[in-house]
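#struct-help
A.M.: can someone run this one for me? Single chain, 501 residues.
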Amino acid sequence: MFFQPRPTLKKISILQSYIHHQIIFLPFTTNAITNQQNSHTDSPENINLIITKVKSGTTSDQIFQSLNHDQTCNSIPISDNLLSQILNRFKDDWKSALGIFKWAIESQKCHTPLPKSHEIILDILGKTKQIEKMMSQLKRIHHHHRHDVTLSSIAKVMRRLCGVGKWQEAVKLFDELHTFGFEKNHESMNLLLDTLCKENKVEQARKIFLELKSHISPTVHTFNIFIHGWCKVNRVDEAHWTIQEMKGYGFSPSVITYSTIIKSYSQNSNFGKVYELLDEMKGQNCPPNVVTFTIIMCYLTKFGEFEDALGIPEKMKLFGCEPDTRFYNALIHTLAKSGRVQDAINVFEFEMLKFNVPRNTSTFNSMISMFCHHGRDQDAINLLRKMGNFENCKPDIQSFNPLLKIWFKTRKVDLWLGDLLDEMINKYQISLDLCTYTLLIHGLCRVNRCEWAYGFFEEMIGKDITPRYYTCVLLLDEVKKMKNYDAVDCIEGYMKRMKSS
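D.P.: on it. Structure tokens below:
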């Protein structure tokens, strides 16, 4: 056992739970009643019914028309929860998501989507690099639903613009904030700086900050953004200089500040500096927290320093830190990588429950990955089935990928793959992403099932998910062996378009 329980832990957790419900849920009783009234409309049956009417590979307008002319779909009352769930199902398929979104707005004129739904569709368009459509959608929302453009929506759009190298347009959007009813203040400035720094545009962010700081006062968060940015581009000296700058403004480094630099040193396997910073934090009366120790343990594990990694729980005790879900997830991963499978099982099945630490999807995924790595695929399947029984802990794409890998490796494709894919797509409404399509195509090619692989290739390009060039080369070689000349022409044509673009 890595941690000894405190006698009053359960009482504390019950009290915290009670307080949490008093503070958070009582003021929103109207919403709670509305949610109860709408819960039957958000049933999996209704969600699945709408999803089955959507054919991937068609245009967003065709999907809109298909849903719009379907009497059964139009009889389903649209709630924001239902719309959000369906949009998240198609988070890697912008055509389906946009068609569904347009239908949801048009099918029931009395339904006005909440900002959450608008944010989701903007993020999907940005994630799938449909930048022009994302900007058009932002303008449309502003024109028709002025109050539904939130600062969070703007932040998502700026992030996606930076992600495709259009950081100047992100800055322009910040300059035009007043047209959306927002002010240029420390909150919106920090959003822009954070967006730029996360996309490695730290120097550009610095120049903008120097222009704005005379009329927008920085906060401690402003400096932490820059510290994270400098560390991300591996310029730790600049991060240390930023700490001195923040002190000049009267701010003290926080545990977030130190943990960011500790992460940078850990990424570079400079654990001597990490332990120096831990001592400095203690001296500055700024003790590390569970996040700090989770970071250190993760990177010790990454570099194979398992003994030191498994010593982290003892170090945590010295600082009075209690483990949380993320820490336990990291501990399970460390135990698994070091070959201590039974210890990992004990943490998962007993210790987390003993401390009343909730298990989440990532916890289960770590266990599934461990079982697959050690060839215990039946244990992984059993855990996946068990996971499906938890309301707030449903499988995601990462739950299934380890099983896909092991079955391709052991050539159990015909035995399991069809059922597994059916479960992913139809039971849990999981949208296949680039990594999973790549895994499927490569795996199927290796087991001489290139017809099936080519079907996934067609599905990918129908969703505008661009396959990796090597995937195209591999598949092309396989369909040539099968003398499938239509597939050869299709793949070669697609590869030519990839080169030209």
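A.M.: thanks! Confidence is low (pLDDT under 50) at residues 5-39.
D.P.: also worth noting: DSSP finds 30 helices and no strands in the chain.
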